[in-house]
Design brief:
about 475 residues; alpha/beta; Rossmann fold; eight-stranded mixed sheet; four-stranded antiparallel sheet; 13 helices; 15 strands
Amino acid sequence: MICLGIKNASVVVHLNRLHFRVQSKPNFLSPRRKSPSAGVFYSSVYRKKSVIVNTIDPFLMAKGDAAGEIMLTSGASGRVTALLSMQVLKSFLMLVNAFLLLLFFPFRGRKRCHSGQLPLSEKGGKEEKQDVGGSGCGVNSNNNNNRKVGVPVMRVPSTIVSWKSSTSAAVAVDHEVAIRRALAIRKVTDGGDVCRREFSLFVTPRGETMFTQSWTPISVKTRALVVLLHGLNEHSGRYDEFAKQLNAHGYKVYGMDWVGHGGSDGLHAYVHSLDDAVTDVKAFIKHVLAENTGLPCFCFGHSTGGAIILKAALDPKVEKSVSGIVLTSPAVGVQPSHPIFLILAPLFSLLLPKFQLSAANKKGTAVSRDPEALVAKYSDPLVYTGSIRVRTGHEILRITSFLQRNIQKLKVPFFVLHGTADTVTDPDASFKLYKEASSEDKSISLLPGYLHDLLFEPEREEIKREIIDWLNSRA
């Protein structure tokens, strides 16, 4: 039933069209009247002056566009029909699809390549750059005598060059990586009488090149291995002093700058996926063990590096090959500067992954109570001091969430140290790790008033002594 507020008009409804015919002498006095010519019943109320169509005469439907009939093509009914048509719906979906393609095209991820043997033509002289263990995974700095001193050379297989390597942004990242790698190499100096310090380039199963370095004891026999993983925004070279102290007690130390840090591939402090870092660490541990057969291996991880070590240790293969792990201020639990970031992070990590979000940084957060240590850290060109990148922050939230859900599965012996005044990572989460982990051999040291960077606190020597004592009792 259709109501039209049209005075002095009768309505004719066709199957696909709506018409009206002007009445010369409408009769509104009769409550119900049958038209002798059209065969259509009309009923109306005089006060409302409305016309209601009750039935439709088939004869009128057959007449089509008779004289005196006007098609209502510009009315509301026509607009509604047009909006609901399949053609308009398809056009709308195509428009939405085009908009999404334009929106997400600039943020396409980097193409990944599979691990495997590189063609001989792409190995780029790799035969002359074999590492100590002869595994072919690293590049040893001692075999570069035929090169010009002070001129770092970076060789990247053509199979790992991304699809956008010709763009200005990719060229800028490659240039930045080359600069950071040169700085990292320059920091690798002679270890003196205590150790022999060397660097190498380790190609991961993902095809990316990681900067690694090692500290080998000279005056004492090597009793065990320690794989060291730094925290967010820093690099392995910051732990040079700690590595030399481990050397003095017979530990050969390996450090790796994980993706986006130090001298390794990737935009500085940008981590597309911490799962990639976990995969890289697993491969690096395997490489270290192959280089040093028969020696027990321990892992050390600070902050986000500790979270990466923990997730790697949940792998049964790593669990069997590692004798224990030491964690300082591990990122088992973190709190963003505002709860809203927990909601927005997943969306913005897809739309603007590399965007530097200054609001996500906690204002006035101190990581050490030693002013000299703070100056040394933030004046280091290999330490990232900018705002955290959106994707990186989201990945940290993801890995902490994973660890919270799987903390009971950890079986590797561990020693966790955490300052109670740490505002970067949560000391309560470390205590939860200690309480809920399935490891039979586990220890914890909660240090009252200590901040985040425990190995750079004024009491650093006491902390290092605790760590070395724990290692000595298990090596």
